[in-house]
Amino acid sequence: MLLTQARLFDEPQLAALCLDTIDKNTPDALAADGFTDVDRDTLCAVLERDTLRIREAKLFQAVIRWSEAECTRQSLPITPENQRAVLGPSLTLVRFPLMSVEEFAAGPAQSGLLEDSQLVRLFLYFHVNPKPAIPFFDGPRCSMTGKEQVVHRFQHIESRWGYSGTSDRIRLTER
């Protein structure tokens, strides 16, 4: 991935452009084959961003893919213990509290990557008030809350644009 090279050769402007592109195209960037080739420091640089446009459950799936590839690179069997070891501190950058309890129960809770004490604390976080202290950040990423919606405003595009003097706006309402 170009971001890894930009960080390696101390090119902050190029690294910033790469991160901006990842922010704008997060699902595609994390699905790319090159994502699993980045080093752990670069993975952490991506995971700690507040501007990623992706649901946390999908981000966790990408982290699992990365950990499997890293285990393979290090000639380790792909086990939850080895995945946890290669992930190191990057696992705490996944914002599990942003998932729905269903997403958490169906994915991370069954992955074996989290320790039992972390699982208990996260399930308590989902179900009790006041919320217990957890080692995972719960700040939102890029206002990714609720169901993702796609709006196609124009049915076709013409080469010219006219202005009639009236307001041009979109109103979105929930039904």
TrEMBL record:
InterPro entries: BACK, PHR_sf
A Pfam family that the UniProt record links to this protein: BACK
Biological process (GO), any one: neurogenesis
Location of the BACK domain: 2-107
Any one annotated GO CC term: cytosol
Coiled-coil zones: none
Entries under PANTHER family matching the protein: BTB (POZ) DOMAIN-CONTAINING 2B-RELATED, BTB/POZ DOMAIN-CONTAINING
Protein name as annotated: BTB/POZ domain-containing protein 1
Lineage of producing organism: Eukaryota, Metazoa, Ecdysozoa, Arthropoda, Hexapoda
